[in-house]
Amino acid sequence: MRSETVILDLAAGAKWKERHFSDADQKTIMFYADAIRQRFAPPSSLGAIPTVAEMDRTGAVDAEGVSSILGGRLVLIARPNGRVRELFWEELPMATPVARAVFTAAMAADSTREFVGIPRINNAGDDTIVVRIVARRDADDTVLPLMRASVSSYVADQPPQVLKAATLDFPRSAGRAGVGSPGRVRFVLGSDGRAIMSTLQITRVDWRDFIPAMTRWVERTTFSAAMSRGCAVPALVAQEFGFTVERS
Fold this sequence. Notes:
Elements: E1 2-12, E2 15-16, E3 19-20, H1 23-38, E4 48-49, E5 51-56, E6 59-62, H2 67-70, E7 72-78, E8 84-91, H3 96-111, E9 127-136, E10 144-153, E11 161-164, H4 172-177, E12 182-189, E13 195-204, H5 210-220, E14 222-224, E15 226-228, E16 231-233, E17 235-242
Parallel strand pairs: 4-10, 5-17
Antiparallel strand pairs: 1-9, 1-10, 2-3, 5-6, 7-8, 7-9, 11-14, 12-13, 12-17, 15-16
């Protein structure tokens, strides 16, 4: 395995769903990010980071870095008084210790009223705040450094491949409604070539009934493991799906 120093940064989210934040909004979001950073306790260990492969249904397409494992997007819905009404992950870091530490820091900042008095985005109601976690190998003066971590990561000589793709079922409910849209999941593929289903994350879906179809595909598809220096290693797989309605 290769070890490298990674800087985790907190940055302002550019958009949430279809809403784009203005430059002024993003400055306000950085106030929230700074409050979270000050309450953040780095996890004692991140463990080994699996290699990363971007795949479609026929095999490996592209490779990413550790950012997709450590990075994420935390959404805060803040009341007019600055207290948090809801707190949830829009994009959950695959590295559980990072996700847990950032979430705990945000809760601590709220409980100690660190968000009270921060400039507001929406004067008419609740604010939506999106704080991004970005993993970088080089420092960036435009964002707030959260922590520096020495992360061990696998370097794949050979990415994982789809050996036998399962059938992607098109839900009858979607067919009757005439709904077709892309979907996306990510999961850790073990060194035995089997998807570790407990790590499966749905990162894009527009129709609820597509979720079981994508899950079954991942569970039933046969993969070859990623290889590093002749040894099979775990891999983080980002999987794209296409649900297309054929109209006559």
